[in-house]
Amino acid sequence: LKKVLIQDINDDILRLTLDDSKNKNALSEIMMKELINAFTDASHDSSIKVIVIAATGNVFCSGHNLKEINNARKNKDLGKSYYMNLFNLCSSLMQLIVNCPKPVIAEINGIATAAGCQLVASCDLAISSNISKFATPGVNLGLFCSTPMVALSRNVSKKNAMKMLLTGDMISANEAKSISLINDCVAEEELTETVTKLSQKIAQKSSMTVRTGKEAFYKQFEMNLSDAYKYTSRVMAENTLRDDAKEGIESFLEKRDPNWSDS
Fold it and tell me: What is the pLDDT of residue 263?
């Protein structure tokens, strides 16, 4: 049985739905591999402009499956190779989301914990329902959320990240918004419509421009100020030479809608 439902909305928006609610949409090896395949395919599909990650049930994603983790202790090496593969696979998925040329939006209706919270933090944008909650509770189980910490600490301030990591406490959607883990929270019945409208707004932009900008955003983020300006100056100069930049500027000056052609 497939763990991820894949559906196209209006051709240019791809909706990926985590569909293993009986296991609280845990990031099993199967689910992560399905997501990796879906993102790899979507990255090369020029018809897809935006990707949405949603989930069935009342848990968006509970992180790794703790039963699977415990069962691996029976292996000869006490599970070491299994754990290395599991966390490396998860890290590959998160980096794939960041490096995907399409904007990725998390649509959260429920609980997102541990690697599930990492998944939310790895997406470019995140909208949740008011009932949603978030946590990195590994510390309560003697297993610090070290890999989720990478995405979390790149989204929220150090103090807020450390509070979540050291207490393991669940935070509300409002608090998640206040610390910038998510962009916004809305009423449950408005969630999908809100995300779809946001997706459609972004899908109307030039794909070339969005792709260029997303890549540059994450690359410059890791640089010092001087290197970031040198790099982005080069990116902007190359961007300005593209057909869509020419068309966009001309359409603005001529007070008409642009007709994008760069793929």
Answer: 63
